[in-house]
Structure formats: structure tokens, C-alpha cells
Hints:
A: 9 helices; 72% helix
Amino acid sequence: MTTPEPEFERLVLEHLDGLYNLARWLTRNMDEAQDLVQETALKALKARDQFRGGTTLTAWLYRILRNSFIDRYWKRQREPSGQEGDLPGVLGELEQALEETEIEHLRPLVAADINRALKALPEQWRTTVLLAEVDGLTWEEVAEVMGCPLGTVQSRIFRARRVLRQLLKDYAPEAKGEE
Amino acid sequence: MVTCRACQEHIPRLLRGILSPALVAELGSHLTGCEACQVELAEEQALSRRLRDVARYPSPAHLRARITQQLEGRTWTGIPRLVTWRWLAASAVVLLAVAASALVLTRRDPLRTFIPEATRKHREMVVQHELFGFPDVGPGGAAELPRLVSEQLGLPITSLFLGDSDLIFMGARPLVAGDRRGIVIVYADHYGWVSSLQCISAPEIEVPKRNTLQVETFHPYHTRVDSLRVLVWKQEEMACFLVARAGDQELADLFLKVRRAM
Lengths: 179, 262
């Protein structure tokens, strides 16, 4: 049975902080993040009949948000004055390349702290880590958000954690040197 | 028997507590005797602690209001990019046409037609506010408004609410329909919620005694049109319509500011 609209709206609004946090990480821009969350909320309400059991509302909303972000990216890419941003397509290719190469290739992206380290990750890895490790979604929910198999989530988390650890190790000597 | 590679691949799941008790026991046995995997586990635990420090961006306070407004079909002054300028421009044209035709009809059934007209005018002003804004009249210009209204429109107005720290006076527009003259004054709060006060010469209108809202000593007629709240009262031969999207307390506060100033 479909949740009544006011109740559904309330449930969507309860996820505002989480949605905005993810939007900020994806867009790295406050205004764009707000637009993205607003777009997500509107889409969710419009498509609330499509929300079914088998997934959580959190995962469903995050998926709408991330897909909207990717849509925006591709739309922007088609525009002549498209901005360079966090490019899911390119980063998807980067992820594939990373899976075939060594962590050494990430050394130029050495992060100064955990936030910078996360930002250095490909979007698909970063979002996976954020959802699973920071937002506390189950891996099944993360798979739903990312639209990928559970095994891919596990693989991304494993690899992302290794890269994060390496980046943070690289940062440590710099910090010591500054003392 | 668990290998080091298998053990290390299981560590993220181990830390999440999503492994079977049997596998946990098996990994425990391996970890007890394997220094390399103990180091791996310690590093993974340290990373998990570091991940707790990941920045969380709290949503801006106004975002909820902005989205609620949009979800309820309300209009936000910061125009959502989902709403195209073309759509808004078309809406403005339609609203203007509807407003003009509705004003002509007001003589047939005064209050029944005035209230929908007031809400249409309000929406028109919201679009005006969003699309084009109002010319900046400055404090001196706004202060001149009551005199201009009185002299040029013949309305019995000696003073008007021209905004305060919470509510900003945005602008004013004349209302003219046949020989009936009036004015609409637009206010917006810091979140962009628009309210309008519409005063029009309407000596024949009688404000019903029913459906009133008691606000201190005042008893304006109160009604709703869609999500808009409308308060109506008479002041000499002038009918006043206060239109806003507001809760009870906000509406009462707004009314008092406007009513006391007049």
C-alpha cells in the first residue's frame, strides 16, 4: 500500500541531513547540493508509488540523488561551457584503471587528512565508503544506491580502504615534518 | 584453514560484525598466531576510527523550508532551477489575464469574487517578485507611499506597514479595475516567503461576522484558498486583504503589524 503523501513527505524530510551531506560530497558545492536535494525530494514525492518493499527509503532516496547528480553531470558535459567537476564517467574509468594498477598511481593525490583522502578517491569508491562507513548503510543498501551487485560493493570497500590507508600513511610523514 | 589473504579480505566484514560466528572464530584463531594479519587488523581499526572524523555537512536551516514550500506547490523566491523561466513567464501572463478578468467580475458578488482575486493577485506578485523584482524605492520612497496612495488613489490611508527587521517591504503596485482603485503591497521575509496586503476601494462590501479570527481586539474574516491564508477586514470604505502562506501564529503576527500601522 502506498504511504499517504503527507506521511511520505515527512519521511523524505527526515532524510534531509543525510541527503544534503551526500550531495555536498558529490557536488562539492553548497548551492548545487541544495538544488540536488530539492530535486531529489521532488522526484521522490512524484515517484512515491514506485517505492516498494525490498529496499529502504534511505537507499531509495540516496539512489535518486546520486542518479540525479550523474544526470546533471552528463547534461553539463553536453553543454559547451560545461564545468570540470567530479566526473562520474571519467572517474568510473579511473576506478577501472585503479583496479588494474598499483596504489602508487594515487600518490600524486596524497591527502592531508581523512577528508582530503576521501576526496582523492574515485566517486564510486568515495560514495561507497561514505554510505557504508560513515552513513552506516548496510552493504545491501549501498548496492541498491550504487546500482551494482553486492560483490562490487565489497570489492570497492576493500580496495578503497586500502587506498585510504595508504594515503593517510603518506600524509603522516608530512605531518611529522611540519612539527 | 584461513589464509592471510582471506583473513585480510574478511577484516572489513569482521569490523562491521557481519560474519558468521563460525567464521569469526576461525579468523580469531588465525589472527592469534599471525602478526601480519594483526597489523592489518590494527590498521583497519585505525582507519575506521579516522572515518568517524569524516566531515558531515549539516543541511542549511532554510533548506527544509525551501523544499517544503516546493513540495506543497509553493513558490520560493530563490527560483528552483527545476522551474524554467519560460514556465514562470507563461504563468505570469496567464495570471495577469485571469486577474484582469476577475477584477471586472467583482461587482457581481463582491466578497466571493474578491477573495479568489486577492489570492490570484498575490500569486501574480510572487511571480513578479521572483522574476523581475521590484524597483528599489529606498526608505524615503517607501515612506512616501501612504501619501501617494491617499492622494492618487483616493484610499483612506494615512500610514502603512513598511517592513521591519523580520519582514521586508519589497514594493507596491496599483490595482485598477474599472472605477475601482487599490494597491497591493508586497512583503517578504528573510527566507523569501511572500505576503501581500491588498487594499481596494469597496464601499459595498460587507465582511461577514462568521469565520473570524480573533487577533487581540481585531476580528478579521478568515479563509483559506488552497494553501494560502486570507484575512479580510474593512477600513472605512476600503476592503483590506492580507494574503500569506503562514501558520496561525505567523499569520496573527503579520496581521498585527499590518493592521496596527494603518
